[in-house]
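quick one: heme C bound model?
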Amino acid sequence: MKAVLRALLFFTLYGIGSSVSFAADTASLPRGYEKWPKSRARIITDKNSLFYGIHYIYVENNTLKTYRNGGAYPQGSRFVVENFAIRDGGGKPVEGKKSMIVMMRKDRKQQATGGWLFAGFTPEGKPAGIDPRQNCFECHQKDTGATDLVISKFADFR
Ligand code: HEC
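yep, here:
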């Protein structure tokens, strides 16, 4: 994900994100995802971690049941994650600027990425031009056999 972050940063800094497009990245962010059930702040202070920063997971209502009970997700299931930079708020980590947004949507057409569409977006919600297989799927594929490529756990959600 470091590579992903670097790529996102690159695209953001050089403003070419919107002109670079990959087939699977033409997806847009679901409208109104901000109103879906939202995780508490997940704070990762390990600078070597991919999720260094503060992130929130949004899970669509219809997706919540499988998230809780396990098993294969129905077509159209959706997750969105918002990542924020971390800054020092007098000894405790506080939220900085939004750094990126990622999405997964169950879609049987996306065979190369395990039947999920993976998409990355700039903080403004524009496609970030990432390679969904190399930059997303390859990591999500590790140790997620029983959870259908979903890594976070409902138990940690709230
Ligand atoms: C190096 C590994 C790695 C890479 C690369 C990666 N992720 Fe993740 N992803 C994770 C981890 C770990 C979590 C769980 C975070 C948590 O528990 O809060 C996660 C969670 C998610 C979630 C919430 C649903 C779930 O699986 O828990 C989405 C959506 C997501 N990632 C999308 C993406 C997209 C899109 C990309 C590519 C731009 C990507 N990820 C790249 C490791 C990775």
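Residues 9-22 have pLDDT under 50 and may be disordered.
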